[in-house]
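Encode chain A's predicted structure.
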Amino acid sequence: MENIFKKMEQYNFWKGNLPNLGYERKLYIHKILKYIDNKLIKVLIGQRRVGKSFLLRQIINHLITNLNINPKNIFYINKEYLGFDEIRNANDIEKLFLYYKKKMKVSGKVYIFLDEVQNIENWQNFVNSFSQDYTNEYELFITGSNSKLLSGELATLLSGRYVKFEILPFGFSEYADFKKLPTNKDNFIAYLQTGGLPEMFHFIDNEVKSHYIQSLKDTIILRDIVQRYKIKDIVLLDSLFKYLATNIGNLTSLNNIVKYFKSVQKKTNYETLSTYVAYLKDTFVIHEVERYDLRGKKVLAGVKKYYLNDLAFKNYLFGILPSDIGYNLENIVYLQLLRMGYTVNVGKKDKKEIDFVAQKDNTTRYIQVSYLLSSQKTIEREFGNLASIKDHYEKIVISMDDIKLTNYKGIKHLRPWELV
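Encoded structure for chain A:
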């Protein structure tokens, strides 16, 4: 245990050492800090490499710097680090934690941070026990890269005892702030091509970017899905990811995807593809968006849209075609709405399609997305679809036109870099 404890020293703040804190993601920090100083388990979930570990370190720094918490009262491990390979299960982490308390002579409240907790077998036993221990004061923060982290029996076990935050890649305003750039069209186009994965901002060469994205995609596919679920048809899973990535924003159904694979002589069935799509969603690399009937006020089964968690997966692995730009823009807008805290559906009003119905706090925003309002026909379609909705909620058309249009029939026009 002494061995592992020594490895812990380099990753914790005990001796006044300050690990790399990265870019401060104020949106998430503000949300999370509102829940500090209680027994709720703070759960940060999201795709690999979106910055969850940096957020944990920023929270730790806030505790020490702004709340005057003794660094020795903070226990942090990251199960992605090789130094913690010996920590296999809940018993191991408990032994290490008790050893730490004895070794550091800790008194008072302890803040426990477990990064990539899904790599600890039966981690929920440790988390549940220590979060509810009424004889000592503990506050827990955990991260994970799988949406099933808090599903089924575990959600029941921890019911009412946790608060969840989904961490997304950088939005455009974060990207521009990180790179010290003005929020304008030229820089938005650069962001549209690069995506929002923070590590990508440090690369200049496109070949390096492509290798990084390929490696990340392989890790998600092979480690988080194939190994975890013992997938046999890796080629099919990889082909499905490519299909979804190159068809973002298109209405589709699993039946149509089955037909597509059969047309290219790839044998599969509805059940297999449904399972594989679920696995891709669980790793956060793909988002599935359901259709919402505005007249019937209900979610429609069957046809859905899919979006990427970051456009870099499409841009650097499969390229950008002229016909892709509108769909890529739609993907960016979808992700931004999630960052803003909206629940997002695709709208259906009779035979008209509304790109996004965004709902939050008993309010709704209807949004149409178009690359350019290049013709009267396009203008009539985008504004007309929204004008057909007869309620008082906000309606917005988003496009990348150089000129911002005045309101039309109460419908706003925004450029994507203005959606905040």
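The CA atoms of residues 1 and 96 lie 6 Å apart.
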